Amino acid sequence: MKTNETEQRVYYADTDHGHVVYYANYLKWFEIGRTELLRDYGFNYVDFEKKDLIVPVVEVKCNYKEPAKYNDIIIIKTTIVNIGNSSIKFNYKIIRKSDNEVLAEGYTVNVFVNINTRKSTKIPDELRKVLQD
Question: What is the number of domains present in the chain?
Answer without folding.
Answer: 1
